[in-house]
Amino acid sequence: IDVNPSLPPPPELPVPPPSEAGTVRRAAGRARYDSAAVHAVLDAGFVAHVGLATDDGPVVIPMAYARDGDRLLLHGSVASRLMRAGTSGLPVCVTVTHVDGLVLARSAFHHSVNYRSVVVRGTAERVTDPEALATGFARLVDHACPGRSDQVRAVDPVETRQTMLLSIPLADASVKARTGDPVDDEDDLDLPVWAGVVPLPVVPATPIPSADLRLDDLATPTTVTHP
User: Fold this and answer.
1) Rounded distance, CA 210 to CA 218, Å?
2) Which SS3 state, helix, strand or coil, does residue 62 take?
3) pTM, full prediction
4) Comparing C-alpha atoms, which of 217, 214, 174, 204 is closest to residue 17?
5) Measured between alpha carbons, how far is residue 65 from residues 73, 94, 139, 168 in Å?
């Protein structure tokens, strides 16, 4: 278990911000824009928060997602507001965040969290090609459990008509992260107060078989025990 996860090493030449809007301004030294960092944060997560502007005001929706190369995939019911809007191209802002630890300082002011986060800005477009749809749906399953899509029934035509797949390019993405100990003021270092980091790792537990499994001797696959 990695209790202090980090990003891959930065490239020799720093990658510039992809856009003015995508430039990290607060604590800019914690920012990265290279694809290796973006992919690492996305690949480690399961839930994205998707923000969009609607006639009723801004909305942020938690959604399952998957990265497929240099694009992000979202899926949902064709009846949902976000998916309906995506049929004609929808500007969105997608965020994925990992809280890796509580940073406890000697002063209240310097308490913080260790984290990794990515922000993706772009236009969500509907995927309509049948082959691309099948590949995208399989990628969503494999994002959660690699290899799982080869073991389950694939999405059938009826389910495909009920489910929409949106694709967002990763061209405008930024990463921001914090690691390490608290940063206390020099005058506070002698205070009789414990300081340090409480790691918050995400640890898979033992899989629980479904109560309606009809084969008692069906072994739990390694795709589930080692996701």
Assistant:
1) 11
2) strand
3) 0.90
4) 174
5) 6, 10, 9, 11
DSSP designation for 147: T
| Three-state SS at 43 | helix
Beta bridge partners, 35, equal none
| CA proximity to 139, closest of 167, 107, 175, 102 | 167
As beta bridge partners, residue 115 has 99, 178
The 10s digit of each residue's pLDDT in 29-69 is: 899 999 999 999 999 999 999 998 887 888 898 999 999 99
H or E element that contains 122? strand 112-126
Q: Is 43 exposed, middle or buried (0-12, 13-18, 19+ CB in 10 A)?
A: exposed
Q: Taking the mean position of all CA atoms in its chain, how far away is CA 64?
A: 9
> What would the pLDDT profile of 161-195 be if each residue is shown by its tens digit?
888 899 999 999 999 999 999 999 999 999 999 99
- The partner residues of 31 in beta bridges, in order of sequence, read 176
H-type alpha helices, the chain? 35-43, 81-86, 130-144, 157-162, 222-225
Phi, psi values for residue 20, rounded to 5°: -65, -45
